[in-house]
Amino acid sequence: MNELIMIKYGELTTKKDNRKYFVKTLTANIEATLKDEKAQIIKNNVRMYIYCENADKIEEKLKKVFGIHSISKAYKVNNNIEDVLKKSLEIMDRNKKTFKVITSRADKTFKTPSMEYSSNLGALILKNSHFKVDVHNPDIILHVEIRTDGTYVYTSEIKGAGGYPVGVQGKGLLMLSGGIDSPVAGYLALKRGVSIECMYFESPPHTSFEAKNKVLSLAKILNEYSGKIKVHVVPFTKIQEEIYKKCPDTYMITIMRRMMYRIAEKYAKKINAHAIFNGESIGQVASQTLESMVCVNNVVSMPVIRPVACFDKLEIIALAEKIGAYETSILPYEDCCTIFVPKHPVIKPKLENCISYEQNLDYEKLIDEAIDNIEVITNFEKPKYEDLL
Ligand code: ATP
Ligand code: MG
After folding, report:
1. Measured from the CB, is residue 172 less than 6 Å from ligand 1?
2. Cα dist. 304→22, 197, 279, 372 in Å?
3. Which of 329, 264, 341 is nearest to 301 (CA)?
4. 119 lines ligand 1 (CB under 6 A)
5. Which residue, among 277, 280, 222, has the nearest Cα to 254 in the 3D structure?
6. Do residues 145 and 109 lie in contact, with contact meaning Cβ atoms separated by under 8 Å?
7. What tens-digit pLDDT sequence spans the chain (389 residues)?
8. Where does the record place the THUMP domain (predicted)?
9. Dihedral of CA 208/211/213/219: which sign?
10. Of 173, 176, 182, which is best to mutate to test ligand 1, by the most ligand atoms within 8 angstroms of its C-beta?
11. Deepest of 64, 122, 231, 362, by most Cβ within 10 A of its Cβ?
């Protein structure tokens, strides 16, 4: 394996006490991402080196791993300046004109100070090539890192995904619908290091097979950032029909969402998740006013985190596009909320009304029954309709 990728860690370097755990989790996540590639990982507290055969392909995969600050194709040579010069001239793009050397010295026993080393190497490059120095706006930045085991040189530095390694902040349960908002909420949770499992409420025959497939496609996109996603599909038809029959039109959505939250919390505890995540955004629809949130949130004690609560729709769309979910999210399949949409949902629901209307429902029993019949999906290759017949 003669190619080398060097990784700088993201935010985790500031968390001194947790560093070991963070690096360990990041390593495990990278190993999982590269499980089909030939790669050897060597790590220390500040850098990770991946020896491999197909650096371009591996670089692409690493771009989706949270906890990485930057990714560079690097070259390792001996700690002697002639070898460093030779390798530098090899990797500096000949079509470019100007350069600047930045040296860092992790090996403090190395005698020459960094600034002096940069200027020595710069002078040698000037002498042996057409390149000119430009310290303010160079075409090429040549990074040189002098370590005890050798000198690493590189000229490219791609921005990593940032954030924390997935898993270091525990687990959350994401309410994943087929819309634009909840996949973005999931992406943001993953970026903060929360591993997620997803919950999707389906109401066949009111919701279609395509709607479920769409959710699985979105889960698959999120899985590229995690590798461990599961989708828990809750049969929700009976609960929705009961609400439809027994509760006033205007409160249907509020009560339906209270049922979703109850199920989510009960199940989250079962799978050891610490919080519920969803794609609610303040004021986007009637069920997402602050008054609605008060009524809905009231049925759970677990934290409910709404990563996109204060984002504009356009900001959410931009993120959806960035993660490659937007095209899927806008496919025109209904979800269970749109099927039973009342003409005039209450915008400022009252908690006492919710409680009173719910007395018409035997909801504890309905909730347990729904949870008992949850289908767990880990394979996101979409099933074909014929496969189910
Ligand atoms: P999205 O674009 O994410 O579908 P939305 O704007 O359509 O959101 P709502 O339908 O009110 O808004 O849902 C708000 C949040 O509730 C969603 O972002 C999602 O987290 C959750 N949710 C809604 N419907 C479902 C469902 N069928 N299964 C799982 N979660 C759901
Ligand atoms: Mg929706």
Report:
1. no
2. 25, 14, 11, 23
3. 264
4. no
5. 280
6. no
7. 789 999 999 776 555 778 888 999 999 999 999 999 999 999 988 899 999 999 999 999 999 999 999 999 999 999 999 999 999 999 999 999 999 999 999 888 888 999 999 999 999 999 999 999 999 999 999 999 999 889 999 999 999 999 999 999 999 999 999 999 999 999 999 999 999 999 999 999 988 888 999 999 999 999 999 988 999 999 999 999 999 999 999 999 999 999 999 999 999 999 999 999 999 999 887 778 899 999 999 999 999 999 999 999 999 999 999 999 999 999 887 665 566 778 788 889 999 999 999 999 999 999 999 999 999 999 888 776 666 66
8. 56-157
9. negative
10. 182
11. 231
Asked if residue 95 lies in contact with residue 155, where contact means CB atoms within 8 angstroms, the answer is no
**What is this structure's pTM?**
0.91
Q: CA-to-CA distance for 212 and 200, rounded, in angstroms?
A: 8
Coil, helix or strand at residue 69: strand
Is 170 marked as binding a ligand?
no
Q: Which residues of 278-313 are buried (b: 16+ CB within 10 A; e: fewer)?
A: bbbbeebebbbbeebbebbbebbebebbbbbbebee
Ligand 1 pocket test target in 337, 339, 346, 347 with most atoms within 8 Å of CB:
337
